[in-house]
Amino acid sequence: MALHYKEADEYEELIEKTVVHFGDIPDRVIDEYVKSGEPLKKAGSYGIGEFGAVFVSGIEGCMPNVVGLPLHRLHQALLAKNIL
């Protein structure tokens, strides 16, 4: 994530690593999932908040990062700059 602190004219780049583990998925289940059209609408071909979540066996790291924004990391960065 890249942050621009306008008043200080500073930029900060932060990286948040999250690993998503998938269980074994039978081919017939994958075929049905693809036919449903759901994976065609998602980055990574699954939605953690939708049916695709049944394939996830575990997550290492920040769950909100999987959805799209590492909220805890953002909050900590803003606190460090006394913005919050």
Automatic annotation (TrEMBL):
The keyword Hydrolase applies. Keywords: Hydrolase. One of its GO terms (molecular function) is nucleoside triphosphate diphosphatase activity. Its cofactor is a divalent metal cation. The keyword Hydrolase applies. This is Maf-like protein. It comes from the Eukaryota. It comes from Caenorhabditis tropicalis.
